[in-house]
User: Fold this.
Amino acid sequence: MKINQFAVVDTPFETQLKELATIGFYDEPVQVAHAKNATAVWRELLRIAFPEVQDGRVKFRDIAINTREDLAGYLNSGAPVTEEVFNAVALQLLGFVEEVDYTFDKVAEAVATINLPLYHKAGRWDADDVLTAWYQLLVTHTRDGLQFIDDLASRGYFMKNNVPLFFNGKAMATFDTSALIREVVYVETDVDTDGDGVRDLVRAEVIRPDTGVKVPTLFTASPYYQGLNNEANDALVHNVDVALLRKTPNTLTYEEIKYEPEQEALPEAHEIAGEVTETTESFTGTSHVDLNNYFLARGFAVVYSAGVGTRHSDGMQDTGSPEQVASMRAVVEWLAGDRLAFIDKHSGQTIKANWSNGKVAMTGKSYLGTLATAVATTGVRGLETVISEAAISDWYQYYRDNGLVIAPGGFPGEDMDVLAELVYSRMLDSADWHRTKMQWHGFQHATAEHMDRTTGDYNTYWDARNYLNNVPNIQADIVMVHGLNDWNVKPRQVFRLWQNLQKLPVVKKLYLHQGQHIYINNNRSLDFADQMNLWLSYKLYGVQNQAASQLPDVTWQANDQAETWETVHEWGTTTPTTLPLAAETATVQYEDWQIADDFAAYKQNFDAWRQQMLQRENDKLDVNRVVFVQPAFEQDVVIDGEVTLQLRIKSSADVGLVSAMLVDYGEARRLAATPQPQGVLIDRGTGWQPTPLVEFQLAKPTTEKMISIGHINLQNRTAPWRVDDLVPDEFVDVALTLQPTRYRLPAGHQLGVIVYGTDFEMTVRGNQDIRYTIDVEQSQLIVPLQDNTQK
Assistant:
């Protein structure tokens, strides 16, 4: 086991004493401050470290000093405190298991192996050493994924006085989650998406501590929050078993399709009848995001809104649109004191967020993180930071790519209208649905036309939903989290955002994990929740904890080792190396056609198809692909950023698409992309919303691993908005940039590229009889390679 902690703040001794006193481990009880020697200090600290009993001394006999002596006997003997003795006890307090995680004859080795940030000093300790060691112990992670101080909190250490308390720069669980206030408001937006001439109202649900202290807010914008229309969604999924169509060539420039927002007069405002200080509507739900649950116990409010076109709100649902973003921005403005909200949709009674300190962070994964990113690009006041996980920054890159209709991994046939249908939760209230049904169907018809599944080209509709255009407006500091094996929201989404943010004077932090489309706040080997605690305590409460410099710029989970998180300063700045595709100079061919039975089988199980395609030796599929393999590397290398495949290629038809996979060939145990539950529930306060502790684990040995992927329409080889001509059997030059990555390729492994046509999971599947020819000599692979010592 290895634990990686990056949120432990180096603290001067005088400050340690003040903080220990603040949380009750120094002045209260006074015996700690007045103890005469190191052993006595240690005894008093230990005595109050078991909040589940009245006197912790009853637990001393359960803790061993070594294989012969328990803690009670050792303390009674007045023996000195040393690093070895203290750490032997510390391992047990932290929940580590003898003969599983450590042995008494190798305590120091266990502390080093597990990577615990415990105090180190040789020889006999004095009282100050014990206090420093205790401070370090409190911020060290237990076996079960919590700081020791948070483990104590979950066992009832802190009195729930509903007052903010900070230790080592992080907020403590001192708020009573059994008495949270739940209230509903309706925020007035500046948009009128249903065209009734009046500004749309959006419902926002507030969960906040019952305290007289003004608190900051974690706001999650989630169109999923008010319910889903699964049956309607499934009925609208598009057929992907269609031919790739020839497109009429054009010479369009970006300027011709660029989105320019129209300056329209504001719709009519709602009439105001008065202002009140209490809401009249509540709700019974709890927080839907685990990270938000964690902060509710620590003095932060949580707000959820599904935005326009969702249940109990006004308007039409328009995936990723400027209007949808504006509706979420409005909620931030209300929290910051800059916008009206009503207690219901009819009385005209307004209410302010008088409990709010005006500082807001937006949180969430996938669509939730996407809207957080989008709202940040509006530059709204009050939004101090965003924690976006697996977020989309450009919707074209989600449902399209290089002139092709592309499905998110695992969801063939989904598109902007399908997602809108899923979350138009006004369907769930019968009367509201019948009032809006005809308008909704018309709105969806227009969406289908604008998003254009026929050509797959980038157009004004998509440019309006490309938030990268508005990155210069960002004022908030940004934390980004993304999986390098996320083929739903692919890594290019965060890579492009990261690149664009380098031009801005905001703080930006990036976490790259080896998972798929997941949260990482309950991961055992990384203290992500602690880091976000440090970050939000700084950003929203103003705690001077050096969070901006304490947190690494880029935290990367190594792909070749379990429980290993490395820190680097950049991603994607490595100078590329050009590699020939193969030693031979001949042309090679492959066909994009399957016999009917195979075509049907691959449609039914595209996971099995992909696994077969990845195999280096597979005679059955050799006609449908070309596999290029580089010589084995003599030392470990790291691929850092985007790999580009430059091809000279021709199609036997006047249409064509190219798909490619980058592959690691070599037998190894690799990290599974889905973290596994560790059989433990971790508390988010004191008996509050426990969540499973998980960890990425090494899987059984495999001989190949897909590193990256890419697709392009040969008629969009210049730009996604421009259509080039394609003459049958005439070579063209194509540069296909694959999804970015950071991947360590071990010595002895080989880097492979598989070039093929139809991707049964992601592209259209027309089963067209097309033959492709590659001029190998005029083709190459451009790879940003670092040797393993570069950071």
Notes: The mean pLDDT is 96. The radius of gyration is 29 Å.
